[in-house]
């Protein structure tokens, strides 16, 4: 049986699988994580500990049809500025719930469209964050930039708050595909945003490209990739388009008959991957690429790569604090998610309360399986010695889990004295292999295609 048939046999072209940006996946969160429980977890953070902060801005000027993000359209800035007031209130509530002196090692502004914020709102939100969470010399401040929603004044404001990494979503440069997915963004507009960032000294640039879009061809993705590389990004995320119109209603506007088959999706990914590799990018995990000198590539080489809600990261903080509607926090005790609806979030936060409505409290087994899955997603391997060094002591249990996995994926996973490793040609199966270690998940249409 050739490798293509093997990938089919293990379900690559049929299965829906979590992306494992968390374990358990957010679909498993329940409402037993209350504001009181989250407050108790916050109080246990050591004084002076480094933390990561995520600020969610759930507004966009227009809603792109392909996008499944939790966000809402707005034609005026009034609700956005009111939302910034609420975020500032939430920052104050959180500061009071935290021990003294935590340091913000990472601050990420995501959405939605954070660059919808007017310069004055960017400045006052950043000031509130800086007052509550001082940064250090090595802190990273990153912002998701929408090239259609950025101008000189906003770029100046972002440079002034210390932004040192920017992420730009591209999806695909083909104007026909852009029309079909409801997001028109010319190369010139993207190039202008990149030039504006670089002119202000922001040299660390992430970009995203999607594979699996309607009418995307091998020649088309090659052309888009070459245009992307002309921007010389430090990192490229090559995400598979997840068509889930039963969850993201606006995707119903995208014609299903124009979508590539799962087999064609694999070819699109492999074509883009080949171009990136031949241009000198290192492969990072299942879908990221980075210049060899970029900190993400260095973390991968050193075995320090981690995975969180934003994808791959070299962030090693144990605590991620999510602020804003639907934002998820991760602490050693578990996950806590704010109210998903902007209205419910604002009601709680404006009353000076934590807006937590759901989450997951880790049992010891969760922590072990979460780490094993993270190792697979980051390193394509699980090392027993590494797990033991990190305090997971139950060797017979770990060994049993690895034996089961190696047996189930015979020929795709090699078993050694120290653990398991996914063979190079079986890497497309990584999420399926991770699911084998997932005690909660069965196949579900709430997840995206395995490829
Ligand atoms: S792609 Fe960006 S701008 Fe478009 S709807 Fe999603 S978050 Fe908003």
Plain-language structure description:
With 451 residues, the chain is of the alpha/beta class. It has 15 helices and 21 strands. It has two domains: 29-361, pyruvate-formate lyase- activating enzyme, CATH 3.80.30.20; 364-449, Arc Repressor Mutant, subunit A (Orthogonal Bundle), CATH 1.10.10.920. The strands form six sheets. The chain has a nine-stranded mixed beta sheet, sandwiched between helices. It has a three-stranded antiparallel beta sheet with strand order 15-16-17, with helices on one face. Helix 4 links the parallel strand 5 (103-111) and strand 6. Helix 4 runs parallel beside helix 5. The relative contact order is 0.16. The structure holds iron/sulfur cluster.
In short:
The chain has 451 residues and is α/β, with parallel strands linked by helices. It has helices at residues 3-9, 35-43, 78-97, 119-132, 152-160, 175-180, 187-199, 218-229, 262-278, 295-302, 342-350, 364-379, 384-389, 395-408, 430-436, and strands at 16-17, 50-57, 59-60, 72-73, 103-111, 135-145, 165-171, 204-211, 235-240, 282-284, 288-290, 306-308, 311-313, 320-323, 328-331, 334-338, 356-361, 381-383, 413-416, 419-422, 448-449.
Q: Which helices and strands appear, and what pairs or packs with what?
A:
Elements: H1 3-9, E1 16-17, H2 35-43, E2 50-57, E3 59-60, E4 72-73, H3 78-97, E5 103-111, H4 119-132, E6 135-145, H5 152-160, E7 165-171, H6 175-180, H7 187-199, E8 204-211, H8 218-229, E9 235-240, H9 262-278, E10 282-284, E11 288-290, H10 295-302, E12 306-308, E13 311-313, E14 320-323, E15 328-331, E16 334-338, H11 342-350, E17 356-361, H12 364-379, E18 381-383, H13 384-389, H14 395-408, E19 413-416, E20 419-422, H15 430-436, E21 448-449
Parallel strand pairs: 2-5, 2-14, 3-4, 5-6, 6-7, 7-8, 8-9
Antiparallel strand pairs: 1-21, 9-11, 10-11, 12-13, 15-16, 16-17, 18-20, 19-20
Helix pairs in contact: 3-4, 4-5, 8-9, 12-15
């Amino acid at each position: 049986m050739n490798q293509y048939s093997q990938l089919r046999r293990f379900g690559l072209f049929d299965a829906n699988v979590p992306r494992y940006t968390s374990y358990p996946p957010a679909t498993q969160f329940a409402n037993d994580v209350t504001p009181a429980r989250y407050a108790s977890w916050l109080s246990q953070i050591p004084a002076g500990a480094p933390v990561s902060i995520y600020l969610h801005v759930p507004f966009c000027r227009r809603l792109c049809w392909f996008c499944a993000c939790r966000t809402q359209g707005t034609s005026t800035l009034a609700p956005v500025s009111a939302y910034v007031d609420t975020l500032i209130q939430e920052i104050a509530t959180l500061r009071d719930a935290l021990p003294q002196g935590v340091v913000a090692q990472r601050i990420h502004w995501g959405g939605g469209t954070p660059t919808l914020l007017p310069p004055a709102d960017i400045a006052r939100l950043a000031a509130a964050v800086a007052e509550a969470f001082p940064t250090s010399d090595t802190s990273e401040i990153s912002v998701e930039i929408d090239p259609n929603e950025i101008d000189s004044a906003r770029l100046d404001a972002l440079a002034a708050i210390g932004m040192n990494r920017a992420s730009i979503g591209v999806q695909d440069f083909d104007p026909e595909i852009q029309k079909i997915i409801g997001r028109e963004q010319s190369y010139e507009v993207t190039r202008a945003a990149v030039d504006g960032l670089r002119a202000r000294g922001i040299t660390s640039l992430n970009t995203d490209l999607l594979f699996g879009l309607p009418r995307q061809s091998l020649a088309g993705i090659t052309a888009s990739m070459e245009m992307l590389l002309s921007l010389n990004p430090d990192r490229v995320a090559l995400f598979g388009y997840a068509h889930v119109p039963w969850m993201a209603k606006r995707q119903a506007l995208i014609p299903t008959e124009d979508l590539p088959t799962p087999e064609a999706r694999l070819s699109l990914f492999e074509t883009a991957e080949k171009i990136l590799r031949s241009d000198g990018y290192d492969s990072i995990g299942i879908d990221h690429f980075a210049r060899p000198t970029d900190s993400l590539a260095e973390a991968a080489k050193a075995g320090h790569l981690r995975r969180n809600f934003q994808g791959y990261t070299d962030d090693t903080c144990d605590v991620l604090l999510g602020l804003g509607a639907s934002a998820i926090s991760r602490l050693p005790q578990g996950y806590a998610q704010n109210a998903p609806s902007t209205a419910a979030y604002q009601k709680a936060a404006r009353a000076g309360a934590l807006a937590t409505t759901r989450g997951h409290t880790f049992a010891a087994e969760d922590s072990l399986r979460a780490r094993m899955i993270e190792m697979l997603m980051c390193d394509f391997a699980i090392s027993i010695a590494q797990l033991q060094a990190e305090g997971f002591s139950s060797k017979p249990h770990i060994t049993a889990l690895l034996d089961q996995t190696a047996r189930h994926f015979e020929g795709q996973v090699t078993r050694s004295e120290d653990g398991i490793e996914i063979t190079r040609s079986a890497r497309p199966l990584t999420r399926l292999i991770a699911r084998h270690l997932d005690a909660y998940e069965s196949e579900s249409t709430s997840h995206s295609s395995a490829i």
